[in-house]
Amino acid sequence: MTQQDGGYFVDAETVTEMTRLLAQDTLITRSMGGLFPERTDHLEGMHAILDVACGPGGWVLEAAREYPHIQITGIDISERSIQYARASAQARDFSNAHFKVMDILKPLDLPDASFDLVNARTLIGIMTPRTWPVLVREMVRVCRPGGTIRLTEFEMPLTNSPATEKVGHMVLQALHKVGRLYSPDGNSFTITPMLGLLLREAGCQNIQEKPHLLNFSAGTEAHEGYTQDLMIGYQLVLPFLTQVGITTKEEYEPLHQQMVGEMLADTFRALGYGATVWGTKA
Fold this sequence. Notes:
Elements: H1 15-32, E1 48-52, H2 58-66, E2 71-76, H3 79-91, E3 97-101, E4 115-121, H4 131-142, E5 143-154, E6 158-159, H5 162-177, H6 195-201, E7 204-215, H7 223-236, H8 238-243, H9 249-263, E8 270-281
Parallel strand pairs: 1-2, 1-4, 2-3, 4-5
Antiparallel strand pairs: 5-8, 6-8, 7-8
Helix pairs in contact: 1-7, 5-9, 7-9
């Protein structure tokens, strides 16, 4: 598989990345205002939920704890992540949490109309403009008529840190170089404006959206968690950046160190923007 075909551009099998993803799940859920902040019905009438590209299972496990009457399934290509998720569910006695190894870039090995809600969060590191429409159609296929397909994505954060901005620009340019972005110039992910269109083109109706604004400036409650996430994530992305010729290890490492220092400064300011967009299967 080439980079243009999709697939995670960092090694998801490492303990460091699995730990980061679990912490990131918690951060995002808290910043969004809960697992389903856009709903007021407390998931009444739902019996089965699917989480696409669940990683080590953070969102599934939290949803299984909060909604013990609903069967929640997570799928991911990483066998190690799925093994961890299964062990975590067993340790917590979450009998309603289920996990399967599955490649979301291929037709999903799941029956038609088998879930009341199909969820996917932060797939920007996996998908491409060619694979997004295919996956969303598969999400619609496995959702029951009248059920919900739900997408949550975030754009690159905006900060006053020169090093953070430079590193972020490197990541964007690398992704643009291998055809991963909707952005025509590689200066942003440009995924949040596309979510509603993806759902509409897959046949969804009653499409709605909820924006998320994340302030993780110095002194805010979210500062430590999100800066740690970026520090680790931007460290793990180095092999990808060097592989596509955006930078070298010798250039990048001091820049990363400068970024860490700027993020920890009292004057650090940062905002992140995201959106949850959902629609109904006809």
